[in-house]
Design goal:
This protein is an alpha+beta fold. It has 3 domains: 17-111, Immunoglobulin-like (Sandwich); 113-227, no CATH class; 241-369, Glutaredoxin, CATH 3.40.30. Helix content is 39%, strand content 21%. The protein contains 8 helices and 15 strands. It has helices spanning 107-134, 138-169, 183-196, 206-231, 272-288, 304-313, 330-335, 359-369; strands at residues 24-32, 40-45, 50-56, 62-69, 73-77, 85-88, 94-97, 102-104, 241-243, 249-251, 261-267, 293-299, 319-321, 342-346, 352-355. The strands form 4 sheets. The chain has a 5-stranded mixed beta sheet, covered by helices on one side. It starts with 23 loop residues before the first strand and ends with a helix.
Length: 371
């Protein structure tokens, strides 16, 4: 993760201790050692994600000048440079050496470069450790998983401590503005709300308020989706038709509402969490099959070969259907599936009695109804 690809760490100076103002100030950006002659360099407002200026590289150099809001969070986007260069518009000139990956200017923006370097170092240490495990063959990953997890938790904690330490050390400045884009992934929605509601200067910056608005909208959509999912519980199942691996068409009604408890399992061969959960489904199937329990798998795959291969390799000895339409599968439309793994449990009469049962919860529920 470099610069704008995920987290923007900015250390502010005393001049930036006030919140963003509606007043405009001049910006002056100059660049040298840009790699592609004739390419276009853009100046982007990170709050609106709109280009507010541009320049053409000539002789390896470019210049831009104009006006933007005081303390606006801006980015210089140069072709061939991953992420770009970010800064606060404090009215002082900003100079960029593209080849050296360096930005200088006011005390505020000079500190920015220093902080970005520290972040790259901290993240690279974590990412190097993670990639050393993820690049191992899958069999070796499984064998070393128990050994790996404590080390992984320690590595992500070390990086998170660095990340939130930066925020805490600079909570009375605008610095956390540049951190906020990744607060949720590291600390969750509660941490976002805590920081935004802290009353600190950064909390009212337009970038923070816009980010919070988008997160709130996304959370609302997730709640609505979950409510739609829960609405199916208590209802009779809705029939649908898909093909088996041999291409023969089958209706769901061939298998449910026929006197058995049936788990309709929504999954895909490309879904890592599905693979992780599948041993629990397999165990439940083998344990309760003789007591009137069955499973029907409805796949969200888009290609037949990996679908059929996973059925065999994951040891899933039940009926499998798919229209190979990925997220546009009829199962997603009929049952409001917006994430997998997911499932619905249908009683012998064809009524949906539970949704999203996993692991021990699935086993406990089946044990209670299949005494």
């Amino acid at each position: 993760m470099k610069r704008l690809t995920a987290i923007f760490f900015v250390l502010a100076a005393a001049a930036a201790l006030v919140s963003c103002s509606e007043d405009s100030v001049r910006y002056y950006v100059s660049g040298t050692n840009a790699p592609e002659e004739g390419s276009v360099v853009y100046l982007t407002d990170r709050t609106s994600m709109e280009h507010i200026d541009s320049a053409v590289v000539s002789g390896g150099s470019f210049k831009m000048k104009g006006k933007a809001d005081m303390n606006a969070f801006l980015a210089i986007e140069v072709k061939g440079h991953e992420g770009g260069f970010v800064f606060f518009n404090d009215g002082e000139q900003v100079n960029v050496d593209v080849a050296a990956d360096n930005l200088t200017g006011s005390a505020l923006n000079a500190k920015l470069t220093e902080c970005l370097a520290k972040n790259d170092e901290a993240y690279d240490e974590y990412n190097t450790f993670l990639q050393s495990f993820l690049t191992l063959p899958e069999e070796e990953q499984q064998a070393k998983m128990e050994e790996f997890m404590p080390l992984y938790r320690a590595a992500i904690k070390k990086y998170s401590d660095f990340f939130f330490g930066m925020i805490d050390d600079n909570k009375d400045s605008l610095i956390p503005v540049a951190f906020m884009g990744s607060v949720r992934s590291l600390g969750g929605a509660d941490k976002v709300n805590e920081l935004v509601g802290s009353g600190a200067p950064f909390a009212q910056h337009p970038y923070v308020l816009e980010m919070k608005r988008k997160l709130d909208e996304a959370a609302a959509r997730e709640r609505e989706a979950e409510e739609r999912k829960r609405a199916f519980v208590g209802q009779m199942f809705t029939d649908l038709e898909e093909a088996d691996p041999d291409g023969n068409m089958h209706k769901l009604s061939e298998y449910v509402g026929k006197g058995k408890w049936v788990l309709v399992d929504f999954w895909a061969s490309w879904c890592g969490p599905c693979k992780q959960e599948m041993p629990n489904v397999v165990a439940a199937y083998k344990k309760y099959k003789s007591k009137g329990f069955d499973v029907v798998g409805l796949s969200f795959d888009r290609e037949k070969e990996p679908w059929v291969k996973a059925i065999v390799e994951w040891d899933m000895p039940w009926v499998h259907l798919s229209d190979l339409k990925y997220w546009k599968t009829v199962a997603a439309e009929v049952y409001g599936v917006n994430s997998i793994p997911d499932n619905i449990l249908i009683n012998p009469d064809g009524r949906i009695v539970a949704r999203g049962l996993r692991g021990k919860e699935l086993d406990a529920f089946l044990a209670s109804v299949l005494k």
